[in-house]
């Protein structure tokens, strides 16, 4: 009788620890969409909500910093040689070439943050997003495609980045047009018609997922 009570207690304890451990590992949130759609703005707005326990995955890039960007905050700016070294040593969760430069997500920090219970946001272009969706499947992964209200709107946004070279603008636009159909590969599509509204929608997606994880 005592033995069976003890066994029941141990079983319950195991279940509770398992639930606790599962709940502790953070979500992986892929925020993708064409360049210029406003991923960065939405991501920063969403991250203001501290209740979501979010962390931003800082990418590596071989492109030069833009005027207000900072090393270790916006990106890690690396040489092409260093980037290729990271690929060779399998240190990137995903990577892609985008308009003449390399961009990639360092693998170890994402894993560490998720282990610490942080819900990690990857703000990445579509090719990298595809790689992550293939590699990381499961109930703790969410993919969100951010849509511009129209291609004209996207064109205006890309043009407004004054530090972008004209050839880059054309290339980014042509690429954006091709990328629009990829939205069907994502769990969610969010229209960035208004920053506050779109950020609210992304927050609600994350909140719903977190709530479902607790219930599970
Ligand atoms: P930008 O030069 O405008 O900062 O970034 C160009 C594109 O690369 C954007 O769509 C941006 O979201 C994406 N990007 C930024 N970091 C990464 C990354 O680590 N991996 C991939 N695949 N794309 C990234």
Topology overview:
Blueprint lengths: L1 H23 L3 E5 L6 H9 L6 E3 L2 E3 L13 E3 L2 H9 L3 E7 L2 E6 H9 L3 E5 L2 H10 L5 E7 L3 H10 L5 H14 L8 E4 L3 H21 L1
Parallel strand pairs: 1-7, 1-8, 2-7, 3-4, 8-9
Antiparallel strand pairs: 3-6, 5-6
Helix pairs in contact: 2-8, 6-7
The structure holds guanosine-5'-monophosphate.
Guanosine-5'-monophosphate binds next to β5, β6 and α5.
Brief summary:
With 216 residues, the chain is an alpha/beta fold.
Model description:
The protein is α/β, with parallel strands linked by helices. The chain has one domain: P-loop containing nucleotide triphosphate hydrolases (Rossmann fold). Helix content is about 50%, strand content about 20%. The strands form 2 sheets. A 5-stranded parallel sheet has the order 2-7-1-8-9, sandwiched between helices. Helix 2 crosses helix 8 and helix 6 packs antiparallel against helix 7. The relative contact order is 0.19.
State the fourth-level CATH superfamily: P-loop containing nucleotide triphosphate hydrolases
Based on the coordinates given, report the CATH architecture. 3-Layer(aba) Sandwich
* Count of separate structural domains: 1
Summarize the biggest pleated sheet. Answer: 5 strands, parallel
Which class best fits the helix and strand makeup? alpha/beta
Strand segment tally: 9
Number of helices: 8
Distance between the termini: 31 Å
String of helices and strands: HEHEEEHEEHEHEHHEH
Radius of gyration: 20 Å
Low-confidence stretches: 13-21
């Amino acid at each position: 009788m005592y033995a069976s009570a003890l066994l029941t207690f141990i079983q319950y304890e195991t279940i509770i620890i398992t639930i606790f451990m599962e709940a502790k590992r953070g979500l992986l949130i892929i925020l993708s969409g064409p360049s210029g759609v406003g991923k960065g703005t939405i991501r920063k707005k969403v991250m203001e909500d501290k209740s979501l326990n979010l962390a931003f995955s800082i990418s590596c890039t071989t492109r030069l910093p833009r005027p207000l960007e900072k090393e270790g905050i916006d990106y890690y700016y690396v040489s092409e040689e260093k980037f290729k070294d990271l690929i060779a040593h399998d240190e990137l969760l995903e990577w892609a070439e985008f308009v003449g430069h390399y961009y990639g997500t360092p693998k170890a920090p994402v894993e560490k943050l998720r282990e610490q219970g942080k819900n990690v946001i990857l703000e990445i272009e579509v090719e990298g997003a595809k790689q992550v969706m293939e590699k990381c499947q499961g109930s703790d992964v969410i993919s969100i495609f951010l849509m511009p209200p129209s291609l004209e709107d996207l064109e205006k946004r890309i043009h407004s980045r004054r530090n972008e070279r004209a050839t880059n603008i054309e290339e980014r636009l042509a690429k954006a047009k091709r990328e629009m159909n990829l939205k069907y590969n994502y769990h969610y599509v969010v229209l960035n018609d208004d920053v506050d509204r779109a950020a609210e929608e992304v927050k609600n997606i994350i909140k719903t997922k977190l709530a479902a994880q607790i219930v599970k």
